[in-house]
TrEMBL record:
Coiled coil: none annotated. Pfam families: HTH_1, LysR_substrate. Keywords: DNA-binding, Transcription, Transcription regulation. It comes from the Bacteria. InterPro entries: LysR-type_TF_proteobact-type, LysR_HTH_N, LysR_subst-bd, WH-like_DNA-bd_sf, WH_DNA-bd_sf. This is HTH-type transcriptional regulator DmlR. Belongs to the LysR transcriptional regulatory family. The keyword Transcription applies. One of its GO terms (molecular function) is DNA binding. Residues 1-59 form the HTH lysR-type domain.
Length: 317
């Protein structure tokens, strides 16, 4: 017996309440439908229908079997669709939102290569530091940075997000080099006003999961900004120490405009590891255009990400 064909015949017969209508729907003989149902009943050891001149009526066992069989067939259909979609050419308009600074530095520069690889995908880019409601804004995929809150959205980690303390050579010559996180309280610090308070929390790199290794530092400083690139420029200008992600500070570090201090410490807002994420609405099947975008940038960034490449020596003050 072709079990799945028999189950489909049974479900159609339960819906149409007729073997002949089911046979017409499935383009098979009425006798074939009848045989399928009889074989199912024999396999299950229970009658699925009460037959009468008025048509087919499900028995209690038939109703129970139909309920679970429909779930199983839906799962099979989903599996077939997911697998067959791998062969579909990604196409259509992809609406993407991303933080402004990260987008300018690490998404937009690679868009020509992405569009060359996927000529049937159009892009609608939304650069904003606000967290948009993806459903209301019609967003297909969002690039988000940090620790994700609990939500119904799907997410894939596409790169690490490492934040380090940096300052200019001129600043260190003038004010000295901090040797421990506690020393930062005596330094001029540049704060990002988007953060909830004027504190930096540090965790030892070698033991990032040990909560006992976390140090919370109260900050001092006269400058705050709501833009991370502005904080970078102020740090390069020698205005104070800044807590910067390596994806933003890497060029200035390589060129010697900034130096990294406290190399054995990383900034954390909690025990969860921050990262760069691709976030998309929950769907049983992720569209090929979303999958193409996420796979492309995960591969482009690499592990470790290209912006950290070659910084092992440059990060030492």
């Amino acid at each position: 017996m072709d079990y799945f064909a028999a189950v489909r015949a049974f479900i159609n017969a339960a819906e149409l309440q007729s073997f002949s209508k089911t046979a017409h729907e499935m383009a098979v003989k009425t006798s074939t439908v009848s045989r399928y149902v009889s074989e199912l009943e024999k396999d299950l050891g229970i009658a699925l229908f009460n037959r009468s001149t008025r048509g087919l009526v499900l028995t209690e066992g038939g109703r129970l079997f139909r309920e679970h069989a429909m779930i199983a067939l839906q799962a099979l259909d989903d599996a077939r669709q997911v697998t067959s979609s791998l062969n579909l050419t990604p196409q259509g308009v992809l609406r993407v939102t991303m933080p402004s600074a990260f987008g300018r530095r690490h998404i937009v520069p690679h868009l020509p290569a992405f569009m060359t690889r996927y000529p049937d995908i159009g892009l609608d880019i939304v650069s904003t530091d606000e967290t948009l409601n993806m459903i209301e804004a019609g967003i297909d995929v969002a690039i988000r940075i940090g620790v994700l809150p609990d939500s119904s959205l799907m997410a894939r980690r596409i790169a690490p997000h490492r934040r380090i303390v940096c300052g200019s050579p001129a600043y260190f010559k003038r004010s000295g080099i901090p040797r421990a996180p506690e020393d930062l309280a005596a330094h001029e610090t540049l704060r990002l006003s988007l953060l909830p308070d004027d504190k930096w929390s540090f965790t030892r790199v070698a033991d990032a999961q040990a909560s006992s290794e976390q140090v919370l530092v109260e900050l001092q400083g006269r400058l705050r900004a709501d833009d991370s690139e502005a904080v970078l420029e102020l740090a390069v200008a020698g205005c104070g120490l800044a807590l910067l992600p390596t994806w933003l500070a890497s060029t200035a570090l390589r060129e010697g405009h900034l130096q990294h201090v406290l190399p054995e410490w990383e900034a954390r807002t909690g025990r969860a590891e921050p990262a760069v994420w691709a976030v998309y609405p929950p769907k049983k099947i992720v569209s090929s255009k979303v999958r193409a975008f996420v796979d492309f940038y995960a591969g482009m960034f690499g592990e470790p990400p290209y912006w950290d490449d070659g910084l092992a020596l440059a990060l030492k003050p």
